[in-house]
Amino acid sequence: MSQMRILAESAFGDDDGAASGEIRAAVRAAAEQGDQAPYLSAVAQLCGERVLVGVIAVASKGAGTPVKESAAKESTDKEAEMSVVLLQAPDGRRAMLAF
Q1: I want to staple 93 with a disulfide (CB 3.0 to 4.6 A). Which of 7, 48, 69, 89 is the partner?
Q2: Contact at 8 Å (CB) between 85 and 96?
């Protein structure tokens, strides 16, 4: 039996990861003008784009604690929550990393 896998063609095969000129202009306008309208326009345009966002796993409050006593042989409950990576400027503003 062959171990070879056949992968389907990607719908994004020609995607080089570069942002379009329209997105760059919208984000630049939002950053430079500091007004709500350009910011909301940039967010609306990003909603239709494909972006990568940094995510990390954070152990849940009960992670590593034993499961109910009726569970077999001291198994542990290993749970994690996913968190988005944020940056915070000295003035308190926050930003989410997206590529």
Answers
A1: 89
A2: yes
